[in-house]
């Protein structure tokens, strides 16, 4: 998978892709992440990327021309499956969307800033608009990192145990059950006996029951009988 991220603040994305699983995925050649500085595509000497909104109002709006130039340059080199705009009014990101997008080969992610981008960008270039929650960030960079992480970890070979991602919360419309590790008892708090039994079928039954109960209590909106 190749992910091209377009941003006016590229340094914000230095850290997320330079550590842990995302770094290893790139080192293994399983994922490629390129961050593009939108100011390199600015149309004047001031490297201007934003301007006042027509009709007035507070805040600045990202201009269409630099974004067009950047996206067009990328598309001249390869075909892209999706051009995604990170925005609070996009579709809510969930595990199903992550599963779907993780199968794509080439993706562009556009990070908004200020009051957002000129609507013509969304009309002409964007194939999908995604939100990571009902709140507003200063820009789309952190949201782009969240989306990238959620996709890259699903690529076969990225995680040392490929079954791990398949048992995460939301994969089957359930939250993950409680997990425990050594020691078996700590300050009077004990690990459930069933997990120490070695009986695989009973352990799986217990985990499923716990997942169902946790989902009913915490996320009844996603629970399905």
Automatic annotation (TrEMBL):
| CC terms in the record's Gene Ontology section | cytosol
An example Gene Ontology biological process: tRNA N1-guanine methylation
Quote the subcellular location field of this record.
Answer: Cytoplasm
Q: Which CDD domains match?
A: TrmD-like
Family per record: Belongs to the RNA methyltransferase TrmD family.
Assembly information from the UniProt record: Homodimer.
Its recorded name reads tRNA (guanine-N(1)-)-methyltransferase
Please tell me the species this chain comes from.
Roseivirga pacifica
